[in-house]
């Protein structure tokens, strides 16, 4: 009886260790491929959600896989805190246990990241000195041309995802104390600009943008993502 109990405990420990070895193997392979294809300086942290892993590998389905990239560069744009959540993932058991993460297919990939305001300002027209979030909304301060004269003002803007990236559009103007009134129509012609962040990794297209104190929090979504389709 005692021997059987010991064998049972040893077998359970072996299964747990084997489960963690297998999940680590697949996580490392996914991270390696993403790092190689996107030229990342270090391998992102990959987490396959849920325990045990082996039962999911046998079934060939995984509810969620999270890829924490961190800083990411594209088209002269740097974003922070990039995270990609893959949901409803499928893969053959031979691929999963063999560490071939490139054959994973996700029903949905949802990427989130932060675009710092100094990055946004880098694409703004000349005269914009700062872009920041305030209780009244997202604002751009600086001097803006009106009839050939540079006039100081604070301009409140909105941001929206477009085919070209993040479009920044003036919606109201607050002139400097004692300064002249600036027509909003004039600013819409000179201050509307686009930050060319059209997508995040895995082909995820921008769907939502939320201004916060530390930058623009962006969300991008892609469907039917296959890791072997990485550029």
Features:
alpha+beta; 231 residues; five-stranded antiparallel sheet; 48% strand; disordered N terminus; seven-stranded antiparallel sheet; elongated
Write a short abstract of this structure:
The protein has 231 residues and is an alpha+beta fold. It is built from five helices and twelve strands.
State the end-to-end distance.
58 Å
Strands side by side in the biggest sheet: 1-2-3-4-12-11-10
The chain-level structural class is alpha+beta
- Total helix count? 5
Would you identify the regions where 5 or more consecutive residues have pLDDT less than 50?
A: 1-17
Organism: Nocardia rhizosphaerae
Protein name: DUF2993 domain-containing protein
Pfam family, one: LmeA
InterPro entries: DUF2993
Task: Characterise this structure.
The chain is an alpha+beta fold and 231 residues long. 27% of the residues lie in helices and 48% in strands. It folds into two domains: 2-115 and 201-208 and 213-229, no CATH class; 124-195, no CATH class. It has helices at residues 2-38, 53-59, 93-97, 117-121, 184-191; strands at 45-48, 61-74, 77-90, 105-115, 128-134, 137-146, 149-162, 165-175, 193-195, 199-200, 204-212, 215-226. The radius of gyration is 24 Å and the shape is elongated.
